[in-house]
Specification:
Elements (H helix, E strand, L loop, with lengths): L1 H12 L1 H8 L10 H4 L17 E6 H6 L15 E2 L12 E2 L2 E2 L7 E5 L2 E2 L13 E8 L3 H4 L6 E7 L7 E9 L3 E11 L4 E12 L4 E2 L4 E2 L3 E15 L2 E15 L4 E4 L4 E2 L9 E16 L3 E19 L8 E20 L5 E17 L2 E3 L1 H16 L6 E6 L4 E8 L2 E12 L7 E32 L2 E33 L5 E11 L2 E2 L3 H28 L7 H8 L11 H5 E2 L2 E14 L4 E13 L2 E5 L6 E5 L2 E14 L4 E16 L1 E5 L5 E5 L11 E12 L5 E14 L1 E2 L7 E2 L2 E12 L2 E8 L7 E8 H4 L5 E7 L4 E9 L1
Parallel strand pairs: 5-8
Antiparallel strand pairs: 1-7, 2-3, 3-4, 5-6, 7-8, 9-10, 9-47, 10-11, 11-14, 12-13, 14-15, 15-18, 16-17, 16-46, 18-19, 19-20, 20-21, 20-22, 21-24, 21-25, 22-24, 23-26, 24-26, 25-26, 26-27, 27-28, 28-31, 29-30, 31-32, 32-35, 33-34, 35-36, 36-39, 37-38, 39-40, 40-43, 41-42, 43-44, 44-47, 45-46
Length: 805
């Protein structure tokens, strides 16, 4: 392994020496991705790099070179973009500029072929036929609305009008990783073209469960996509896509983390955890070009069915598990009108609406150890403080299930307009003004219940009381709320020429509120325990009076039983489970530059974000699942830089750097200390967790061209990407320092066949990709708070074959 890594480094360093002998010494050939590949957008009125916003474009060639086959592979490559690879494909947390979401609604939007993916459970999918990815950083609320306050990702699949033939890819790598895909593109005529393809991938897993003696994270996934484009006449286009993907995987490779020694225990829990997902997406984009405007009507549909099973104590003990099932159906519709290019006044106006029906079934099952420690043990701890009479409780259930079924439909509607006036007063000066009115209505129908069979024992000297009891607790009802947001944007841009500009902008974005259905496990547990204590008190009184003991009057019995603690639960369900929307005002200064006849391009940006009611993910007080809370206020400021330099026709350098300083400015948090006591902590000045302070990427590619009828070229790519420091907790007491990983690829192109040797994390860097804390005595006896961590994937080596015909 060390020899292989050394060879990669030597190859990269000696590329210029080899180039003198085999590479042509022509001047650089400049390629503009957006000019070569025209991708229609219903909203943008000009090329993305000409907009007053910070944007990164990743071409198909760059994705292949940097081995990007999902959104998680982009971390570090795009400035201030971080999507940690942990858990399973359900966990799709994306962070841009300190804004992100671990659970519930996303903070970064995703569009695939102009169709919005409303729920982030669908964000992590396979990129087997992707043409280009655009990442717009900063709030995009005026044109794209809810849940784009951190930014927007636009994914474009290959058009059958641009590609012809069949593209077959095969891949094999260490850790028993294999994949295959094939897509056929056919242009039937000048008016109709279609594509159809599919993929399959298998992963043997990277981490071992030492308790079960098997890999914890194997993967098996497959799917396909079809696209058809019909041009009835020169002014009308129908673009239809449909795709399905099925995923079956293990996951949640979390090991106990020891803060004092910074050691991570091997993964070891006794119940196999898994995630299964079926994902169907379909969309139709109708475009009509009139004389003075372009009309687009975009309809999208998404169906998601998944099942997540997790051993939630992450230990060999039999404490508790959760099985969550989601059934989601969403329909989106957007109609836009925009001006044609070439005029000083460029405008777009539109209306958007969607409806999402989501049913979540999420029972929590307490197993043997959980019943003894978390329910029976906690209640008997209270009785120990009562000297007389001696009391204890015995639960007869071997396992105890807390059932929960939740419907959370969401309806949203919006209208918006944005105008740009070019050459205002002087040539090159433009002003952009936009406004969006966004309305959202959410509802929660809940039905949580549990049933417990138990016995209560009371010892009063010679008299012993034993009561067999059954408690049935139910929480059933509904809640609803709505939000109205006004999302303005203003920007001023000056174009020095066609390829160089400077801009300043201000915009507002928001992330919608919602409901913490995970809280119902806590609420039903509290209701159950209160009901049990009342049953015990009433049953004990009735039993004692029935014995007719001399002197044991009703008042005497009440006095004796008054020592029994009963907490009245006046539950405010809405207040307990609802979290508010999060919103931000963002201010940005940036420039897009192209110099030396296009041989060197760079983007520079500085930003400041004032974030209100920031949504933070944390575990509920009893440890039964994660919840979202509003953290008050925070601010994020930083800078971004990206460049690409074409040194020669064969040799390119590229890189990026992002800096984010995101801190709380107002946040009082209720947390449990090491003794298990709930205390209020002032976190003002602490860094926002899960946000890398730095992200960076530096890379190079070199092409050896050969005038040979079989051997066409050899291409060497290498990148060094990284992130850090990352603070994992709100207290900032657990961190991942700055780290980097080296990826490399060497491709031999033989006519229609390409053969690639590749390495991921070639230096075998060890780093953490996720950390969280839960109630310690659940999984680690004697600890009030316990932390778990997942490591990043180790070094991988492999080979790819690509055949086009």
């Amino acid at each position: 392994m060390k020899k292989f890594t050394l060879l990669l480094l030597v190859t990269l360093l000696t590329l210029p020496i080899w180039a003198d002998n085999v590479a042509p010494k022509d001047t650089t050939r400049v390629v503009d991705i957006e000019e070569v590949l025209v991708i229609g957008s219903p909203k943008e009125t000009t090329k993305l790099r000409q907009l007053p916003t910070s944007v990164s474009l990743l071409s198909q060639k760059e994705m292949q070179a940097q081995q990007i086959n999902s959104l998680k592979n982009i971390s570090g490559i795009v400035p201030n973009f971080y999507m940690p690879d942990y858990g399973s494909r359900l966990t799709s947390a994306i962070y841009i500029r300190g804004v992100g979401a671990r659970i519930n609604t996303p903070a970064v939007g995703l569009y695939v072929d102009n169709i919005p993916y409303v729920d982030k459970s669908a964000f992590d999918f396979n990129f087997f036929d992707i043409e280009r990815i655009d990442i717009l950083r900063g709030p995009q609320g005026t044109l794209y609305g809810r849940n784009t306050m951190g930014g927007l990702i636009k994914v474009h699949t290959k058009s059958p009008f641009s590609y012809q033939g069949t593209d077959v890819k095969l891949s094999a790598g260490t850790y028993n990783n294999y994949s295959a895909s094939a897509t056929h593109y056919h242009r039937w005529s000048d008016k109709f073209a279609f594509s159809a393809g599919g993929f399959y991938e298998y992963g043997g897993g990277f981490f071992k469960n030492t308790t079960l003696n098997k890999k914890v994270d194997p993967l098996s996934a497959g799917g396909g996509r079809m696209r058809a484009i019909w041009l009835p006449n020169e002014n009308l286009k129908f673009d239809f896509t449909v795709g399905y993907e099925y995923n079956d995987q293990g996951g949640y490779a979390y090991g106990l983390y020891h803060k004092d020694t910074e050691v991570i225990d091997p993964v070891g829990y006794d119940k196999e955890s898994s995630y299964r997902r079926g994902l169907l997406n379909a969309g139709l984009n109708i475009e009509y070009q009139a004389k003075n405007f372009i009309l687009n009507a975009v309809t999208g549909y998404q169906n998601l069915n998944d099942r997540m099973f997790m051993d939630q104590d992450f230990s060999p003990r039999k404490v508790y598990t959760i099985m969550q099932k989601q059934r989601l159906n969403s329909v989106t519709e957007e109609i836009t009108l925009k001006s044609k290019p070439g005029k000083n006044w460029q405008w777009v106006t539109g209306a958007f609406g969607f409806y999402q029906a989501l049913n979540t079934d999420g029972p929590v099952t307490f197993r043997e150890d959980g019943v003894k420690t978390m329910i029976e043990g906690n209640i008997n701890k209270v009785f120990k403080n009562i000297p007389m009479p001696q009391m204890n409780m015995k639960i007869n259930n071997e396992t105890l299930s807390v059932e929960g079924n939740y419907d959370t439909p969401v309806m949203s509607a919006a209208v918006y307009h944005q105008s740009t006036y070019n050459n205002l007063f002087v040539k090159g000066l433009s002003v952009t003004l936009g406004l969006r009115l966004d309305y959202e209505k959410t509802k929660l129908d809940y039905n949580a219940s549990t049933s417990i069979d138990y016995a209560f024992n009371m010892n009063m000297g010679q008299m012993k009381v034993k009561l067999p009891l059954v408690n049935n607790s139910v929480l059933k009802g509904n809640e609803k709320t709505d939000y109205l947001q006004v999302l303005p944007k203003a920007a001023i841009k000056y174009d020095f020429n066609a390829t160089n500009s400077i801009y300043v902008s201000a915009s507002k974005g928001y992330r919608s509120g919602g409901y913490n259905i995970q809280m119902f496990s806590d609420l039903i547990s509290s209701t159950m325990q209160t009901g049990m204590m009342k049953q015990v008190k009433e049953g004990s009184k009735e039993y004692i009076l029935a014995l007719n003991i001399p002197g044991m009057t009703p008042d005497r019995v009440d006095q004796m039983l008054s020592k029994m603690p009963i907490k009245e639960t006046n539950l405010n369900i809405k207040e307990a489970v609802t979290y508010k929307p999060e919103f931000t005002w963002s201010y940005e200064l940036g420039t897009h530059l192209s110099m030396f006849s296009g041989k060197f391009t760079t983007d520079l940006t500085a930003f400041y974000m004032d974030i209100r009611d920031q949504q933070i993910a944390k575990f509920a007080e009893n440890g039964l699942g994660r919840i979202t809370v509003n953290a008050g206020r925070s601010r994020s400021l930083g800078a971004e830089m990206a460049f690409r330099a074409s040194i020669t026709k064969s040799f390119n350098l590229y890189g990026s750097y992002g800096y984010t300083h995101a801190t709380f400015t107002d946040y009082l948090s209720n947390q449990k200390n090491e003794k298990g006591e709930l205390v209020t902590v002032d976190l003002k000045g602490n860094f926002v967790p899960m946000t890398p302070r730095n992200t960076f990427s530096i890379g190079a590619d070199y092409t050896f061209a050969f005038n040979h009828r079989i051997i066409k070229s050899v291409v060497i790519d290498a990148q060094y990407n990284g992130a850090g420091k990352i603070l994992w907790t709100e207290r900032n007491d657990v961190k991942q320092d700055l780290y980097g990983i080296l990826n490399a690829r060497a491709t031999l192109n033989l006519c229609d066949l390409g053969i690639s040797l590749w390495a991921k994390n070639a230096l075998n860097t060890t780093y953490s990709t996720f950390y969280f804390e839960t109630i310690g005595d659940v999984s680690v006896p004697g600890k009030a708070v316990a932390g778990f961590m997942q490591l990043g994937k180790p070094m991988q080596l492999g080979i790819d074959l690509r055949y086009r015909f």
